[in-house]
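Title: Prediction job returns without error message
Component: structure pipeline
Severity: low
Priority: P3
Assignee: unassigned

Description:
Job completed but the reporter wants confirmation the result is attached to the right record. Sequence as submitted:
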Amino acid sequence: MNTDSKNLSNSASKEDNDEIDLMALLFAILRGWKIIVFFAVLGLVIGILYSRYVNPTFKSDALIQIEQNSQGISALGSDISELIGSEASKAQTEAELIRSRMILEPVVNSLHLRIKLADPTIDIFDKIKKNGTNTQRNTLDDVSLETENGQVSVKQFDVSQAYLNQPFTLVRTNTGFVLSNGFDDFKGQFNQLNKFKGANGQLHIVVTDLPFNSHPTVITKQSLQATTDALNSSLVVTEKGQQTGIIQLSMTGENPEQVTLILRKIILSYVNQNQSRGSEETTKTIKFMETQIPTLKKKLEDSEKKFNKFREKSGTIDIGQEAGILLTENSQIDAQINELKLKKADLTTYYTEDHPLVIQINEQLALLSDRKQEIDNTIAGLPEVQREFLQLSEDTAINREIYLTLLKNYEQLKIVKAGQIGFARIIDLPISTFNTIAPKKLQIWVLATLLGTMLGAILVLIKSLLRNVVKDPERIEAKTGVPVVATIPRSPLLTRLRRNKKAPNRLLAYVDNNSLSYEAIKSLRTNLMFGMPVQGRAGQRAKVILITGESPGVGKSFISSNLTEVFAQLDKKVLIIDADMRLGELHKTFSMSQDNGLADYLSQDTTHLSRDNSEVSKIVATQDTNSLASFIHPTGIDNIDFMPRGQHPRNPASLLANGSFDHLMTELNLHYDYIIIDSPPILAASDAMILAQHADKVLMVTRYDDSIEGQLVYAVNQMNKANIKVDGIILNDVQQGIMSKYSYHYSYAYGNNN
């Protein structure tokens, strides 16, 4: 064979092994169907109980739209809009803001959510029986809880920091109530503020009602952090879609009206905070203006007062116009003076200085000269007056402009504030739908059943992997070095009969003689016939077969009794001995008593145990051989005799080793063709090692899919250490069908099926 063909063969072999392993796992799961069904039913029961235990959960939804900002300010003009900067808010940021203590704390305080009431008389069984329990109700007035003996109603409960999150018990009394924490008892009255001083601080409480019959109520004042955390755990705030600016709020709880009320309060708290934030800059600007307007008004009044005083002092109204008038007047005076001088010169040619006309002209000249001098002086002082005039007039104009502008904006902002709204708009307020969202009973039942099924399958696989039970004959032969001489299939008919524990054990020949099990027993007989010598040990007549097992319950008594029956069909004299003097039950198979059996026979010679073997042999030899017949009983079946186990002795192994059993076997070999000994399990007692000294064939029975492989190997090794060869292994109770990958080891039934 070339290399390629070898590789191909190895690959195919590996693939076949993998397939067998996977099939083995599948078959292991199918064989453990009872465990899987048990856990599936258990999971279903737990799911049903859980769905009844938990209270129904309700959900309430609301929608809020987040706008960019209000448009009311810009409508009043660009000037006032510039005083208030624009603000953009993202929905995700607002969603986190809604969950903050700034928004939740007003809701917690207004609805008294930090007060928690509970009914300690309600246990798990009550919840399952009632399929839900009453929950507390928080309103603006009080906190209440319905119980079977009445209502609990508390309006106020305040405690010091040390008493936060600590439970107290409220109980009605004849005169009022008692508040207790296990250490202190505080007595109070209904419908009034009760102030108590405890070891850890103050307690204030107002109780309006309590249940009768001394029904206790547990009351706790939670910390703000714990309460807001609890609200956030039931509150979901998300943006619908991408960049839509629409926030969806949903809250879950056990009371639909309570959930709706809390969510409504949260929305209103957020909107109020949002509106306050939206008008915050406007309010601050108005407050600033209110502080600045009186100052600017005073400043304007001072500047006007100075300006008026200057004008009164300077006697002018407008410097520019007055300067022009003076210059015009000065030029006119100059013209008049020149004209008067010409007239005077003309008159002086005719008259003296004392002439009235000349004197009149001189007087006029003097007046004009004085006026001209006055004008010249005034014009000379104009630059300084003009500078002061301009400064005072400009100060007055600026102060007037600032004051009027600020006053105008102040009036506009008051109008804006009156109509200003936030950038959050309520689209849908929460409403109570009274539709439960949890528990989804059908879904819980299905999931619980599936989880139970999975757990059962996992346990079956783990059990299969850890126990490593006996299944594969080839694997058994490889592990022990002992051939598997027979695989005995399970008899379905006999199995059904054995379910009735009171029914006696039956032989296959009388119950299921056409079954594969019976044919497998016959095949074992044939194997033993050709595998044993023509004569027994030391030339004796009988051939001795020892049937044992590694542990109890493997079916060695079933194999022994049915093997005895098929040997008797050969017209051979067969004796079956129940050598399991502790727990043997072969007498039930033959419907006989256990008395007068092997233990009784061996016990009659215990007085000679102190003597040596030669003396014992002599004593036994002198006994009447007919006395052995009282311990061997006919079964009513042709060619089959039976020696039961007898009364339970204190030392079975010692009885087998004292020499009496040797004499017994010597006597029995003279009368029987086959002797089949049913011995105790190897791992339970050492009897099988003693009995094996007299056997021609030692067969070990193991039970398919039940016996532990390691125990079987250990039992074979124990026999080997005692220099006893195990001649064959019988694989008993092999189950036929699709769930067994080793069904090819079965024999075919061949015979009359009528």
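Comment from assignee: result matches the submitted record. Residues 356-419 form the longest helix (64 residues).
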